[in-house]
Amino acid sequence: MPSLQPSLFDGDRLTLDDAIQLSLASLTAYGERYRHWAVAYSGGKDSTATLAFVAWAVHNGYVPRPQTLTVLYADTRMELPPLHAAALGILSSLSITGTQLVTRTVLPAMEDRFFVYILGRGVPPPKNRFRWCTPQLKIEPMHAALGAWRDFVGEKFLMLTGVRLGESAARDQRIALSCSKDSGECGQGWFQTATPEAMADTLAPLLHWRLCHVFDWLYLDERHGLDTEAIAAIYGEEDIRTGCVGCNLASRDTALERLIRHERWEHLRPLLELKPLYAELTKAKHRKRKVEPELRQDGQWSRNVQRLGPLTMAARAYGLDRIFDIQQRAGVDLVNPEEETVIRQMWADNIWPQKWSDQDADGTLPLDAIRLTLGGELAVQPRIV
Ligand code: SF4
Confidence band (pLDDT; 50, 70, 90) for 374? Predict the structure, then answer.
């Protein structure tokens, strides 16, 4: 836990204005080497602070103006609704003179969207050791969009991210692991390290900003002129984790819990039922199971003998009914009509994840238990009843 005791050096800490001057200096030094800049925008606090800063600096001519500034908003379709609405509002109110501003919303491919993947294809909800969601919802769509942008402009561009190192090594660790910790912004640190070098060079102009700088800039500084009320309602002045609503990898949905304390967003309370629904869907009674041991490509037996697999068709239908009930009571759009059509078509086409089919056993079928010994042999334990 960080110490609240002021240190001897607190008086030397950067003020927000100092931090802004440093950011302007780094953006000037690196920015003038590129004609095209891009911001991968998530709607989170660091990302919004970065976008607001870059737009303000370019608009006012405090840094050399690029030819184009492209803002790619990563819409996972799973954002907290007020954050999503705020992000769209911020995008539409951005105004920059002297530079061509391009704003685009980047969506995951239809078959990769969160509920289409779970309820259409039958892949169980993500969890810590089965985290299919971040690449699929965030990284891959953004890379595809950036790749297309790189091809369009025909040269390497400057990618601006909201990654901050803050003050302590502990914080650095949290950035690197932001998807599995209780604070930070899912996928952001990951994106930073995963941006292909040939596509863009990456600069984090707010790298040295402390958390208080971010909040002071967003909430109190009127220079950027953007509406940050929803961000303030979610974060307050804490470094809480944001990402998909009901994220199954976070121990609690802190952002949602904080939000529904506000009367204005109390109607979102049914979204708290998402995590329990994911827990329900991962039970054996909703899934298929392998009966026979599987051989891996290297000729060894797969370690997870008789593993549980995808959701049964009945579980997918149950899940979709529950999602419709939750979204109707919360007044939001978790599965839209287009996604519902795709999900139902996948059921009609009898779609299963690779290596699975409706011929696989139900997860609760009584079986002789087979396990892999330490020596790599199969051991069978006959069932008792
Ligand atoms: S916020 Fe959670 S569910 Fe969403 S991509 Fe990140 S880890 Fe996955």
Answer: confident
Domain boundaries, the chain: 13-235, 287-381
Distance of CA 343 from the midpoint of ligand 1 (Å): 21
Q: What's the distance, Cα to Cα, between the start and end of the chain in Å?
A: 51
198-224: per-residue pLDDT in tens?
Answer: 788 888 889 888 889 999 999 999 899
Buried b (16+ CB within 10 A) or exposed e, 45-83: bbbbbbbbbbbbbbbeebbebbebbbbbbbbbbbbbbbb
Q: What does the pLDDT look like over 239-263, one tens digit per residue?
A: 777 789 999 998 888 889 988 998 9
Q: Which residues of 112-141 are buried (b: 16+ CB within 10 A; e: fewer)?
A: bbbbbbbbbbbbbbbeeeeebbbbbbbbeb
13-235 has which fold? Rossmann fold (3.40.50)
Strand locations in 107-166 (E): 157-160
Instruction: State in Å: Cα 115 to ligand 1 middle.
Output: 13
To test the pocket of ligand 1, the residue of 75, 131, 254 to mutate (highest count of ligand atoms within 8 Å of its CB) is: 131
